[in-house]
Every structure is written in structure tokens, then in C-alpha cells.
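Final paragraph of the annual report: two paired records, presented back to back.
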Amino acid sequence: MMLVLRLAFPLLIIALFFASSVLLAAEPTAIESGLVVSVQGEEKRVGLDQALALLKVPSVSIALIDEGRIAFGDGATPDTLYQAASPSKVVAAIGAMRLVEAGTLTLDEDLNAKLTSWRVPSNDFDATLKVTLRGLLSMTGGIGVPGFLGCEVGAPLPSLTQILDGTPPANSPPVTVIAVPGSAYHYSGGGYEIAEALMQDVTGKPFPKVMQDLVLCPIGMTASSFAQPLDAVLAAKAASGHFSDGKELPGRWHAFPEHAGCGRRRPTSPSSWCSSPMSGRGSLRSFFTARRCSRS
């Protein structure tokens, strides 16, 4: 049996999720062979090492998750920190849902009822239907700004309000309502930045601390962090960013003060994700009932 991964652009982290027990029975070597990569429009079937060379990807981390458990994992080094990029939104959404579970937030309330540091600027699109947390998390809230470029190391970092308003030193446009809430799906990193502001406002804590308390610590992901910029300890463990031609990014990476949308760093070690995502202490099923993180 052969597992096929199609890699059309450089990747730093590959996570494999399969529902079929037949596929899950595959040996790790099957994951590392028969990869289909696209190079200048031409598809080639190669092994993992050759795929990385062709795509000029300097390192990769792989995990095979079998029925909720990590069956196989391999990475650059166990402590290497990668930028999680948009999967940061998943963690942010879980944090928001914990606040909903606690009764601190509701899914269908007008966001401006709870926002204090910033307000969603109203226009004709939301004259009748208001932007809600449900809309933000599902990207159906009618909010613009799909993504963010990040900031070069050493450059001034914008505040969350500057990001939302699109004012310098932010390098992205203002986050506004661009469609009737609930009318359509619009991929929106900007929406998750509104969610970040909402969570900070109702908890009175910086967003990295909110995520540490609500998600990362209870689920056992203690090596992950939303800290931006990286301190010296985290920077020493961080993987460098690269362009598609293999050249290293000046300054090694960009800082992303847009925490909820793309600001998380996580290590390559699969054990750092949590030993079982679906059962036990470090699990999606159990951590909604966790109320504090044990400190040993």
C-alpha cells in the first residue's frame, strides 16, 4: 500500500490525519515514500528526502495520528520551534469556546456589547445582522483581511488596536465588515484578531496568557507559545524561515503580533502536542473540564 502526499509548495510541518483503519496500519516508511511533488508545473513521485531537496525545504516534522493517538512521529529535533501560522486559529477558537463554556462569552451576541478596547465599525452590511463570535470563529461573520505578512525582526510591532485599525506600524488594511454577517464564508485572519481583542477585554489578560491558561497548559502543550517577539530562550530553538528558492529569511523569521490569527510557535516533537488528543488528561475531550493547570 502507498500513501500519497501532494506537496506543491515548501512545507515546514506535515501532519497526517487519516480516518481509515486500513490507512492507519501503514508503516512509517510508507509515509516517507511515494510523495507527489510539483516542481515548475511538473509532478514527480519521490521519497521524502528527495522531495525536501526539490522544494528546497530545510527541515520537516511528520506525525501519523491513529484513532486519536500519535502512532509515529519524526522531526528535525524534538525542541525545534516552528511557526504554526494559521493553525494558531484552531487553538484560539478552543480558547474562545472555553470562555463560552464558562459563561464569560456567548456565541450569538453582538460583539460590541463586550468589546471595550476596540469596536467593530458598523456600516450598511451589519445594519440588521450584527457580527458575532460564532461568525468570527466560523469565518462567516462578514469580516475582511484574510491574512498578515508579519514584521521583520527588530521592526516596531503594532498594537492590536493598530492592527485592527490598519494604522502604522501595522502593514495590513483595516479590519472591517465587508459582507452581511452570515451571508457567506470569507477566510479572515482579521476576524480572529477581533476575537483576540474580545478575549483580552473580557479576561483582562494579554492574549498569550489567556491561551496559556485556557488551552496550552491544561492540554499539556507547555512547549508551545504565543509569545511575540521571541525571547532569547525561544529564539535559540526556533527554525529559520526560508524563501521558495531556499534562501534564509533576513532576520531568520517574521514576528507576528497577530497572535490569534497566526502567532503561535510549537515544537516538532509529537509528544509535545499531547499524548492522546481524544482521551486522558491531555485531551480535547477532557480539557474543557480542566479548571487549573497542575504545577510541578
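The closing record of the year follows.
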Amino acid sequence: MANADKRTVREAERRRANREAILRAAEAVMRRKGLTATSMDDVAVESGFSKPTLYRYVHSKAELIFEISFHSLEEMDVRLREIMGRPIDPWGKLQEFLKAVFRLQAEKESLTRLFLMDRSFLKLMHVFIAGSDKRGLEAERKFFRRTIAQRRKINEYAAELFRGGIAQGVFRPFDVEKAVGFLGAVVMGYIADRFWLDQKPNLESDVDIIYAFVRHGLERLEPSQGATS
């Protein structure tokens, strides 16, 4: 690799590390102070970067909130990609897949609650969804496009897992696209239900129950089972 190429790689890695540090710092401050009370000054102090450096990575508090939300999807991508590369059977991958999804959600739960209970965030989401504020419309559209692309990438991991299980004869044949949609609905339903619970759920137990439920629908039926069901 040429020296110029090495410098380019190092610069990209440096920027990724700096962005990661800024987003982690922002999450920490928001958990302590709340979303509304958190300022860009707070994030600069927490991250150890000057304000000019901070603004090279995020241009506003609204953009920072978008980046934190998107960062969760990036973290999910890293974890699922690692699982898909493991030399384990499809059932093992499915179980680890579910664990990764729910564990990340549990790690981000306090931040998610903070966002959803903050009026300024809900107003920002309304602008994002409805596109009612022309001033920031392009930033919101960009965030929306990135989010959709990243979610499709995550869904493709599930599709790859299902296709592999079918090809190996471990899963019964089924419509993979519909199965991905169903799995997504199960995950989102669990997350929504968990949000309103006063009592902290048992994550490992819940994952085992959901895994058993999904597995029951994917298992191949023996001819005798199919005849009696």
C-alpha cells in the first residue's frame, strides 16, 4: 500500500474513532442531564474536543440526535455481521441473533426512554416524519435515507440466516421475505411492550421464549407430524 493510501486509511480511522467518542460522550451527558438540558458545550467538554472540532462532525444538536439514533443501527450491524460469520449451525445463529438484538435494545433503553419522553425530541421526530419544516428538510431526508438503507442491511442478515437454514435442510421451506417481516414484528412488539413495563423483564428468559416460539415455526415437520396437524 502506497504512503498516500496509508495516510487516507489512518485519517478515516481517526475520524471514525473521533465520531464514536463524540456520540458516546453525547449519550453519557444526555443520560445525566436530559435531552433538553444537554448543550453542544456539554458534549464538547465530555468528549474532550474543542467546539470547532465537534462542529466538524455534527453541525447542530438536532443532527447529533439523529447521529445517536443512527449509531444504534450501526452497532447492531457490527454485532450481527460478527454472528453471521461464526461457524455455528442455523439454530445457534438464530438464537445469537435474537440475543444481540435484544441486548443492544436493553443497553439503549434508558436513552430511548429519555428521547421518547422529551417534547423537543418528539417535535423533532414530527418534523422528520411530516417534513413540515423546510429549513431542515434536507438533513432529515438524508437521515431517513441512511436509516432505511441500514435497516435493509440488518434485515438482509436475517434473510441470509433463513436462506442458509433452508439450504442446509435445517429450516422448512418458507417465504423468506415474509419471515423477515414477521421476525421484525416480533422484535418491535417485544420492545414496545417492554417500554411500558414497570418491572424490569428477564432478558435471557424472554429471549429463550421468543427463540422457542420462532423455532417452532421454522422447524421441519416429519411426514407423520404434517399428517396429524
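The mean pLDDT is 85. This concludes the annual technical report; the extension proposal builds directly on these records.
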